[in-house]
Amino acid sequence: MSDLAEQPALDGSGFARLAMVTIDCADPVALAAFYGDLLGWETRHADEHFAILDNPEGGSPLAFGRVTGYRPEPWTEPDGGKHFHLDFYVDDLDEATAKALALGATEPTYQHGRTLKVLIDPAGHPFGLAPLS
């Protein structure tokens, strides 16, 4: 029996449980390594087609799937579109930004102007870092 099937029954407010979030990319192993280092999560599985990071807090894992012909989202301009983005709380915004940049993230010139720092992961997906307090 799978771990998902062994989870407690739903509370009646919905009929589904989030099993996993999968992010499309050209190189699942590289993107899993980036987010694994960013979050401190362990890799459960990685091959040229798919990679999974386990959430050490017991929540849903984060996965990465290869898409042939993958192109980054055009979010780097103020009027660009995006399909999704991830936001993360951090203790120190400047320190976390520097660490993410050292891992291979880039910083677009356009920012929202709030306390959220928008960065771009190595596959071109935007993500946000926000101070915890």
TrEMBL record:
- The chain positions of domain Glyoxalase-like read 20-129
Cross-referenced InterPro entries, in alphabetical order?
Glyas_Bleomycin-R_OHBP_Dase, Glyoxalase_6
Q: Which SUPFAM superfamilies match?
A: Glyoxalase/Bleomycin resistance protein/Dihydroxybiphenyl dioxygenase (SSF54593)
PANTHER family to which the protein is assigned, alphabetical: CONSERVED PROTEIN (PTHR35908:SF1), HYPOTHETICAL FUSION PROTEIN (PTHR35908)
Q: Which protein, by its recorded name, is this?
A: Glyoxalase-like domain-containing protein
Species of origin: Streptomyces rubellomurinus (strain ATCC 31215)
